[in-house]
Amino acid sequence: MEPRFYNTLSRQLETFQPIEAKKARMYHCGPTVYARPHIGNYRAFLFADLLRRFLEHLGYEVLQVMNLTDVGHLTDDADDGEDKLQAQAARDKIDPWVLVENISKLFFADLDALGVQPAHHYPRATQHIDEMVEMVQKLIASGHAYRVGDNVYFDVHSYAPYGKLSGNKVDELEAGARLEINTEKRHPADFALWKSDPHHIMKWDTPFGEHGFPGWHIECSAMSRKYLGDHFDIHTGGEDNVFPHHECEIAQSVCATETPFVNLWMHTKFLQVDGGKMSKSLGNVYSLDDLAERGASALDFRFLILRAHYRGSVNFTFEALTAAVESRRNLHDFRGRLSAAAGDTEAPALESGAVFEAQQSFMSALCDDLNTSAALASIFSLRTHFLKEGLSAADAAAALHFLDHTVDSILGIFGNTTGDTDELRDGDVEALLLERTQARADKNWARADAIRDELASAKIVLEDGPDGLHWHRA
RNA sequence: GCCGGCAUCGCCAAGUGGCUAAGGCAAUGGAUUGCAAAUUCAUCAUCCCCAGUUCGACUCUGGGUGCCGGCUCCA
Length: 474
Hints:
Elements lengths: L3 E4 L4 E4 L7 E6 L10 H19 L3 E6 L17 H9 L3 H18 L15 H13 L3 E4 L2 E4 L15 H7 L14 E6 L7 E3 L2 E6 L3 H11 L3 E7 L3 H16 L4 E7 L2 E3 L14 H6 L4 H9 L7 E3 L1 H25 L10 H15 L4 H18 L3 H19 L14 H16 L3 H13 L2 E6 L2 E6 L1
Parallel strand pairs: 3-4, 3-10, 10-11, 12-13
Antiparallel strand pairs: 1-2, 5-6, 6-7, 7-9, 8-9, 14-15
The chain binds one RNA strand of 75 nucleotides through helix 1, helix 5, strand 10, helix 7 and strand 13.
């Protein structure tokens, strides 16, 4: 089954065709490390992780790069614009370099909690100044960029396809511009490659002047090129990156290298909160800690995100979060029941039946532009089938293997299910159950409940049913 | 003002020009139960509004309304 993905550039689904057979090189626009990323940011990063895991499951050798923007961009396009990283550092009364370190640590801790597999490289803008300068020089030499004093701008008229990704037209950009016109640019849509300001703290001495710093977009062009080559497979980001960021990247990279840049552009929709956007004024910009206060783990949030398709808007509410917690718990419970039903049986390869059908629909849903919502539905359908009609030990073993080696390796929603070194062994459980049964016969409810609590803390679930006692691990 | 996207059950969310519009969570009634949990049976939408195309539309077209995004750093 060949995966198909939606390409923002072509505005249609395309069968994935890697540049090199069985290899996928991809770049993700990462965070600007001036404040801890919020849950909306993490939607995009969770998507990148899903894509990577899925491609690897299909047998691709993936090379994944995510940048850390550790030099601030200007808050506007005027010469006296403020750098938000520098501004935040000033508010915190710390050095911007320290701020970058602090926030980066928080970011990586969050990624770890979310079960995101580390990218192969996390290049930082400030460590690639040389690569950026080289690229800017090339653009000047080839006539795509021009200097005005110590500033350098890209001439959008020098690259005819400018606007193709976003659907913008250069003339209309000018008409709708809300910015004050920067009179030193030849055209209002021209964008900065390099800026200079003696008041900046983070600045570099380069051929363009001694107080310069990179423009808004050049870091991604320079760093993707360094780690992935001039031409690579996939570039992702949030929908807000489409314009101007990715549009500008394409123009810079194609003009500087004179080769194609990226084949597949993928973008995630924004996360909404209570039907609207997150905003500081509404107080609904949440971090993972805010969710933890409501009893939801980072993996619960991951699950919540995966329940929706990445290109659709997701409406985050605490009610939906609670539902995700419950739903994921039920999935965990399902896994435990399968484990109990499978016993020591080895997982066979299947060619028919409910488990086989679940495997098929799961994979075909993901191949259809990563439709995680439909993929999860196939697992819940299998759960319903198991609960209503049961599964043979062999089928249960196959289902368990499917959950662990396909579902979880791609979706990463179960967490550590194998770290059970200090759990009770089956024999100990049976002994306690025997004692509890006796206690119940003696109507010693206190002892019976104490044993149940003890087992519960070891993540053993008991069920007293009309047909006797069953137990399984949660 | 100019571009683009979305609008499906209480909440979240798939999907299709035509059999019964996935799935999750919540809810309601019954069974089971020392209590609880779990389970179990049953119930739970006609797809924002209006007009049109069509034998037939929730699915296509036009208009309206609402929300989201881009045009400005932002996942």
